[in-house]
From TrEMBL:
<dbReference type="InterPro" id="IPR000969">
    <property type="entry name" value="SSRP1/POB3"/>
</dbReference>
<feature type="DNA-binding region" description="HMG box">
    <location>
        <begin position="601"/>
        <end position="669"/>
    </location>
</feature>
<protein>
    <recommendedName>
        <fullName>FACT complex subunit SSRP1</fullName>
    </recommendedName>
</protein>
<feature type="compositionally biased region" description="Acidic residues">
    <location>
        <begin position="489"/>
        <end position="500"/>
    </location>
</feature>
<dbReference type="InterPro" id="IPR011993">
    <property type="entry name" value="PH-like_dom_sf"/>
</dbReference>
<dbReference type="InterPro" id="IPR036910">
    <property type="entry name" value="HMG_box_dom_sf"/>
</dbReference>
<keyword id="KW-0805">Transcription regulation</keyword>
<keyword id="KW-0539">Nucleus</keyword>
<keyword id="KW-0234">DNA repair</keyword>
<dbReference type="InterPro" id="IPR035417">
    <property type="entry name" value="SSRP1/POB3_N"/>
</dbReference>
<keyword id="KW-0804">Transcription</keyword>
<keyword id="KW-0158">Chromosome</keyword>
<dbReference type="InterPro" id="IPR009071">
    <property type="entry name" value="HMG_box_dom"/>
</dbReference>
<feature type="compositionally biased region" description="Acidic residues">
    <location>
        <begin position="547"/>
        <end position="560"/>
    </location>
</feature>
<dbReference type="InterPro" id="IPR013719">
    <property type="entry name" value="RTT106/SPT16-like_middle_dom"/>
</dbReference>
<dbReference type="InterPro" id="IPR050454">
    <property type="entry name" value="RTT106/SSRP1_HistChap/FACT"/>
</dbReference>
<feature type="compositionally biased region" description="Low complexity">
    <location>
        <begin position="502"/>
        <end position="513"/>
    </location>
</feature>
Length: 690
């Protein structure tokens, strides 16, 4: 909310104010207001949403009022409504006053609000706003475009305001209706026709500035029955009125005023004979605790319809004058086209269709992909990405920081699919997975045509083969992949519930790490001329030799005999494998692997390990088809994106676990007379998360 001094932006002075509320009839929205030499621009906080732009040439007057939330800057637009911006401080007036005189050549008038509580006053229509004035001071002001119906009853004028389902918070109060009593003989509202009452004069003035087009009734202009809506899911009868639209379903109804409709999208679905008409809202409608920013209406692409609007020629002309002249009294064509054109003509919202992009097969305007656990379609439009369907997401290009064609999930050397990562300027990352390989080049060409920044552009231009080869080379690096994951905090020894084949004893002895000592469940013996040692060398390779070198430096560990489990019921006991004493190919004598002392304390876990244990079941539920490696990568990506506040509980748990381990290790060493420290360092990482 703090005012910032004028700063140079593109050659002109700009005043910027944060935490400024846009005052409306009901709920208010918070955003940022920029005052420049070209006019005023208010944008809602949180990315895409409502934008209020007032050009310098359209400003009729500016006034300053003290209200309950601080101070209010009112901007009255020529032939338009008054926009009220709330949240300024007293000291901001001087700065704004000087700026307005220099840039706009007009003075900001200070207006006092009437607080007398008297209900007798005058009415003034300023643009599209109705102001009630008491003793020369405004008592309140309401926007006339919000009026959905107005009627006269003798000397009273009753106005009903739209109470829709796009309120930001159900606890907010909202003006629903208002009545004015206009006594006979009112001098300011003298009728031209002596038979008309002064109330009729006020009614005509109100209707002339409403979005109903001068219609006082509440009859529907058009009706579309049994419309299949994907979000919120259900079948609805859609009734379009002069100022709002109703969605009536079997269990729920929604009422949406046209001012909440930001844009209409017509998106043909790929591989199916259906077309989506998406209605974008700000603020969104609400069902329980779920908010729907986009309404997805699905229509058969081949179905035709003809409708005649229930509207008078006068009302049609008035509506076209207000909403761009796109409304027709009769329309014929595909049902999705007629639906969208009718909604556009009544609301004034623009229609967006797919642009030049087509998929690799040239039979659709979208690429199939998955987002989290949902399988849907991504539409690259001329100015934005639109993902359908759970959740529907609109990502404008002006909010995109960069895009990347990569392989983040699944098998890194897969040649069939790839991933698209879209990073926004708000540090939000959207990953669209499992896109078919043949879509790589068409997407890259589209990104370059739209001048979107492509990360690793040279690799992307070389094609998916180079990207996959790079990923494969990373897997074949001399460094152990498990060690790389350990450096990132990924626990390779953690068991996944879906992969446990039996009891704990049977699932813990099958890893390659433990097959060379006596603690495994199975035993390898020499038979038919096959040397166990050679088999192990081929299986383990460089990793096994590295472990042996470390054991040579560390010295011998204490030998503790453990009972061996028989491979099969046999009469004769098994002999000690000769492979432990057999020389290796280099001629050096192999030394047995050190054993983990079962009495040693359990190794402490890092904060990431605690996070991984807590998130694994949730990530598994969200991605039921993901492999163990994919889950590990998804958890790692989630860990990188959470805030320090969200990491704090896991860091605290790691701190307590480390304290527990240090105390237990001190007691363990003391009991052994100071010995056993090296044994713990050898075996601690293997036990880490059993």
């Amino acid at each position: 909310m703090d005012g910032q001094g004028p700063s140079q932006g593109q050659g002109s002075a700009i005043l910027s104010y944060g935490q400024i509320f846009l005052g409306t009839r009901g709920a208010v929205s918070q955003g940022q207001l920029k005052v420049s030499s070209n006019g005023l621009l208010w944008k809602r906080t949180g990315g895409s949403g409502k934008v209020v732009e007032i050009k310098k040439a359209d400003i009729a007057s500016i006034f300053w009022t003290r209200v309950t939330r601080g101070c209010q800057l009112g901007v009255r637009v020529k032939e338009g409504a008054t926009h009220n911006f709330v949240g300024f401080r007293e000291r901001d007036l001087e700065q704004l006053q000087n700026f307005s005189k220099q840039q706009y050549g007009m003075e900001i008038k200070e207006m006092m609000m009437s607080t007398s509580g008297r209900n007798w006053g005058g009415v003034a229509i300023n643009g599209k706003s109705l102001m009630f004035i008491v003793d020369g001071r405004p008592a309140f002001e309401v926007p006339l475009p919000d009026v959905v119906s107005a009627q006269q009853a003798k000397d009273d004028v009753m106005m009903e305001f739209n109470v829709d389902d796009t309120a930001a918070d159900e606890r907010e109060d909202m003006l629903a209706e208002m009545a004015f009593h206009v006594p006979q003989g009112h001098e300011d509202l003298a009728p031209e026709n002596p038979e008309d009452a002064p109330a009729k004069v006020l009614l005509d003035q109100v209707l002339a500035h409403t979005d109903t087009g001068g219609v006082s009734g509440d009859e529907a202009v058009a009706r579309f029955s049994d419309v299949h809506v994907l979000a919120p899911r259900g079948r609805f009868d859609v009734d379009m009125f002069h100022g709002h639209v109703n969605l009536a379903g079997q269990t729920q109804d929604f009422k949406i005023r046209f001012a909440s409709i930001q844009r209409i999208f017509i998106l043909p679905k790929s591989s199916t004979p259906h077309t989506l008409v998406v209605v974008s809202l700000d603020p969104p409608i609400r069902k329980g605790q779920t908010y729907y920013t986009h309404i997805l209406c699905q229509f058969p692409s081949e179905e035709e319809v003809s409708i005649d609007l229930d509207i008078t020629p006068e009302a049609l002309a008035a509506k076209n004058e207000k909403c761009g002249g796109k409304l027709e009294a009769s329309m014929t064509g595909p049902v999705f086209e007629v639906f969208a054109r009718t909604l556009r003509g009544l609301s004034g919202a623009k229609i967006t269709r797919p642009g030049a992009f087509k998929n690799a097969a040239q039979d659709g305007f979208a690429v199939r992909c998955s987002y989290k656990a949902d399988d849907g379609y991504l539409y690259p439009l001329d100015r934005a990405f639109f993902y359908i369907q759970k959740p529907p997401m609109l990502i404008p290009f002006d909010e995109v920081e960069s895009v990347e064609l990569t392989r983040l999930g699944g098998n890194a050397v897969s040649s069939k699919t790839f991933d698209l990562v879209v990073r926004t300027k708000n540090d939000v990352e959207h990953q669209f997975r499992s896109i078919q390989r043949n879509e790589w080049q068409v997407l890259l060409d589209f990104f370059q045509a739209k001048r979107l920044r492509v990360e690793r552009l040279r690799e992307a231009q070389a094609g998916p083969n180079v990207a996959n080869a790079r990923a494969a080379a990373a897997l074949d690096d001399d460094d152990d992949a498990g060690m790389r994951h350990a450096e990132q905090g990924v626990d390779e020894d953690e068991d996944d519930e879906d992969f446990v084949g039996g009891d704990k004893s049977s699932s813990s002895g099958g890893s390659d790490n433990e097959s060379g000592d006596d603690s495994g469940d199975a035993e390898m013996i020499e038979e038919e001329g096959i040397k166990v040692n050679s088999v192990l060398d081929k299986k383990k390779g460089k990793k096994r030799q590295q472990e042996e070198e470390e054991e040579d430096e560390g010295g011998e560990s204490e030998e503790e005999e453990k009972p061996k489990k028989a491979k099969k019921p046999a009469a004769a006991p098994k002999k000690e494998p000769k492979s432990k004493e057999a020389p290796n190919k280099g001629g050096d004598t192999k030394k047995p692997r050190k054993k983990k002392d079962p009495n040693a304390p359990k190794k402490n876990m890092t904060s990431y390990m605690h996070f991984s244990n807590a998130m694994r079941s949730k990530m598994k539920a969200e991605n039921p088809s993901a492999s163990f490696g994919e889950l590990a990568k998804l958890i790692s990506e989630r860990w990188k994106t959470i805030s320090p506040e969200e990491k704090a509980p896991y860091e605290e748990a790691a701190k307590q676990d480390k304290q527990r381990y240090n105390e237990a290790m001190a007691a363990y060493k003391s009991a052994r007379g100071g010995a056993g420290g090296d044994d713990d360092e050898d075996g601690g990482d293997e036990e880490g998360n059993e």
